[in-house]
Amino acid sequence: MRIAFLVDRFGRKFGGAEAYGVNLFEILSARHDVTVIAHEFDHDLPVKEELIKYRSFWPSWIRVWHFARQAKKLTKSGYDIVHSHMYGGAGDIHVIHVAPIRYRRLFGRSLLKRLWVWCQPSNIAYLLLEAAAVRPKPGRHVVAVSPWLRDRLVDAYGTGLPLVVIPPGANPVDFSPDVREHVRHRLGWAPTDIGCLLVARNPLRKGFAAVLDAMALLPVSFRLAVVGAEPDVHDYLDAHHPELADRISLIPPTSNVSEYYQAADVYVHPTLLDSFGMAPLEAMAHGLPVVVSGPKHCGFGQYVTHMHDAWVLQDPEDPGEIAKGLYELGLSTETREHLLRHSALLVQSLSWHVVAEKYETLYADTLRFKSSP
């Protein structure tokens, strides 16, 4: 099968939605002829590449509009399936990773505010491109990455969408004591330290501030590594908790996140808004117990149960609640082993091979429509 995959940036280091695409097509590229159409690449998969260029100074809505226009031209012929993570009408399978623009800008707003939204060219572009992506047509499928996101799409567009929920996957990772020892040494963690980990493209939006406040409540043996830290994260640490600097390691975005999961003892993810949240699932795949926001704030929270397979936060802004979870999972062997036993079963049920098979089922359904008279 000839598949075109549309995505702005193709590489694990760019974020959770981008890693979703790489992990999925790592499997699909072994069975199909895959061409990735993107603006930026950072991967080692055996796929063809088509580069869409744009000027860095262009506003984001111009870049998105330009990508949609070019992608439609490039996929007009030559492909059996067009699988898209982008706005615009070029796609048979459209995967939605974040709350829809229509929901965020229009849902529950007053008439005056809705009219103001339609007065701004950027909003008009986003709304029209999103509508083109989800517009029902024979053979098209719209995929939400969590039940929470499916509900937001229904709120925004009604029940007429051809919606399917396919969450991200994870595969169990073989643990390497050598990798763990090497990375912990590099981070300056002693063997008796409790290493906590947060992985995020934008840590400040995933609860970094609350985690810092929690770290201030924990013993000095608790250390924190933050992977994905840009300069604004350094600035926040310096301004709000300079006394914690020797306990916090800030690591820039990297495609080799696995070594940090292996070095850590507990994963923490007190996000206030995540349509799914791949990082906690990946942490479980690495054998880590997880402190994570509940379903009100995180789509992954709908898949876990407090004290069964995760430590689920009722209030992700409460540093005391976060500190309690980190302390318990870091020091209580009994609690830790109980959660790990059950989280391993969750990882098995959400493997990337299962995810790939679900997409191939959608592809087959789309091809039936395309081949019918």
Automatic annotation (TrEMBL):
Record's keyword annotation contains Transferase: yes
Alphabetical UniProt keywords: Glycosyltransferase, Transferase
A molecular-function term among this protein's GO annotations: glycosyltransferase activity
Membrane-spanning parts: none
Chain ranges of the Glycosyl transferase family domain: 184-339
Domain Glycosyltransferase subfamily 4-like N-terminal: 14-171
Signal sequence residues: none
InterPro entries, alphabetized: Glyco_trans_1, Glyco_trans_4-like_N
Record-linked Gene3D superfamilies: Glycogen Phosphorylase B
Protein's name in the database: Glycosyltransferase family 4 protein
Organism: Sheuella amnicola
